[in-house]
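This section describes the prediction task in plain terms. A model, or a person checking by hand, is given the sequence of a single protein chain and must write out its three-dimensional structure as a string of tokens. No templates, partner chains or ligands are provided. The sample shown here is typical of the held-out split.
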Amino acid sequence: MTETRLEIVVDELVVRGLAPADARAAAAVLETRLAELAAGGAGGIASRAEAFRRLPAVDVRAGSPAALGEAVAGAVWSGIGSGAAR
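The expected answer:
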């Protein structure tokens, strides 16, 4: 049986309005949450022809790098076709 592999590459993450340390914290939460979502199963991910996809901006309450990371992870996961983040 062939193992299914899902690789998500974020070439550029633009974070405006956060201090560098908070931006790194948000990026770490993003990475952790995407790994959790992927570990939950890759079912429902639609095949696609494009090599990249740009997602819309995410609005999150100010002062919460963790909330920003969670919101971006949810947007990415939804954007690849799995539906709403769990």
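For orientation: The chain is about 40% helix and 0% strand.
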